Amino acid sequence: MNDKTFFNNSIPSIWKLIISIVVCQGVGLLSAFLTSAEMNTWFDTLNKPSWNPPGYLFGPVWTFLYLLMGISVWLIWKSNISNRRKESAMTIFGVQLFFNFCWSIIFFRYHSPAWAFVDILLMIITIIMTMISFSSISKPATWLLLPYLLWVCFASFLNYTIWMMNS
Question: Most exposed: 9, 34, 115, 143, by fewest CB within 10 Å?
Answer without folding.
Answer: 9
